[in-house]
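User: Study the shape:
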Amino acid sequence: MSFKILVKNNYDYFFSLISFLAKFSVAYFALPIILRKLPSVDYGIWTFFLTIGSLTSLIDFGFSTVFSRHLTYILHEFNLTNDTDLKLNGLLENQRRTLTGFVSLMKIFYFLACIIILLIAIIVFFVIKNKLLYHYPYNINIVFLSYIVYVVSIVVNMYFLYLECILIATQKITQIKIVNITNSIFYLFIVFLLLEMGLGLLGLSICQLIYTLFNRILFHRLSSNFLSFLGKSLVIKKITYLNNLRNSAFKTGLTNLGGFLINKIPIYFVSFYFSLELLGSYGLTANILTLISIACSSYFHAKLPKLIKFKLLDNKGLLKRHFFYSFCFQIIFFVLGSIFLLTFNSKISFLFQSQTLVLDNKYLILMIFTAFMEAILVLSSNFIMLDDDIPFFKSSIFTGLFVVILTLFSLKYVDKFGLLVIILPPLIGQSLYQFWRWPLYCYRKLELFSFDSENQ
């Protein structure tokens, strides 16, 4: 390996780690600011907004990853791996037509995805108007305006996802991470500024829009050289491309859908059957557990480039070692974070000067256990996917449907059991199969119980 490639790989690894830590740190520092400035009912509405925002990854249906991978294959086939190669070698006409057609396909796909998001947003608008805000004590028009601004930010983010695919395919990983780091710091500053100005919920939505626009403008500048080599939009090969890509994205999309049904649908039920204050408390508790889970996965994400390299080299010894390290780091960090949360639960709201409370320990213990098992499941799934294999897509979608049905059935007893009718179904549904099947599959696949010294 040349010195230049070695340095580049180290830069990619370094900025991947810094970007990950920056996102985690911003989420950690922004949360107290939001909790201090936002009334509990507004935080409940913001939690609902964020659930709408998660539709982006659902509607993408796994195509962003597949687009990036296939565009990378096309560029390698043409011996064009970055902008420098394009400048030195230029493009033959057939290459220009192929790349133009592929980029046009991505634009059309994300344009259609934006239309779907807008249609869903219109339906949700009437749900918010007629159900969620029935007893809202403040100015309802501010909520409507905040919702419109937030939806615009979702649409902008979705349409320009093709720029990120281009940057990944042209090996601009370091530049992507630098943009993410800059945006994370910028986001924290804007959140503090707008909330201090007293804009509340509207301020958070405006912040999300500014953050998205800033991110996409920078991504467009980074990809401008690549785009300048393309010709006019072509329609000839789009259907062929789509057919080739559809099978690759299908399993990823179903897995995402299953995860959405398991983790996001409960928030919709909470918003319909409980008060906005309780929705805010549920959302706050879920967000804190998400922060703990993100921190737990930091070792894996920092080592991901090396893990891919070890997999390509078929180095099972190092894969075992780093899986063991990831697993131990995750357990230790999660246990410590959970103990802290349970111990200081009643003091967190006072510490943050929050108007929104964390849920009681009787609910918190169940949510912690569910989040812990999900963290192990996600870690195992990520290692399995290093083989570009997604054997769990069927179980994910069936578990998601089972959780939704079980939740609907449990809502009959909402007066008797309260939030347990929302918290227990995901735990029960995933414990039946997912929580034990795929970690066990991963352990066997990596042969973690064989103690040979090969490739150590």
Notes: The chain has two domains: 37-247, 264-456. The longest helix spans residues 93-132. Residues 402 and 429 are 6 Å apart (CA to CA). The mean pLDDT is 77.
